[in-house]
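Appendix B. Chain record.
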Amino acid sequence: MTSKIENLASTLASVLGEAATVSIALGEVTVVVKAANYAATMLTLRDEPSLRFDQLIDLCGVDYSTYGEGTWDGARFAAVSHLLSLVHNWRVRVRVFAPDDDMPVLASVTSVWRAANWYEREAFDLYGILFEGHNDLRRILTDYGFIGHPFRKDFPITGFVEMRYDPEQKRVIYQPVTIEPREIIPRVIREETYGMK
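Structure tokens predicted for this chain:
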């Protein structure tokens, strides 16, 4: 007897064929799609009657540069989506890797699910992943003049600029970061009689 998750995985494998890799881990089904097949696969996931993933729950960016303590040798950036089928009551995770680490570009799925609009803007803002076909790809969480993408693993913790209110100019100003990097070593004080009572 097959479980519901195994049934979903086999249905996905038969419908998607060579266009995707389907796996089960920790009770969840994950579909890994190549960037060239991404838009068509997402459309199939929504429109195929045996699947009917009609709701996009989430879409986020991921930076795999230090994944597995630096043992990762695949593409650096990915977009991960979570889909829900209300008709069949099942969920699936879809992962697609951007082929170019220097300029990560993926197809937009806003034409498939309108809910992808702000999710793709967030992935662009925080990770620098560009979504081709998105009609309003601009920053959503950081300031419009912000430099860089703060969730990338190589982004400095202190950032590049700091913002403060200047009472003389009566406005917010931006200036280079003035925080000096330092290593904090905890000071440990041990008593001679510690633990001997």
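Further analysis of this model is presented in Appendix C.
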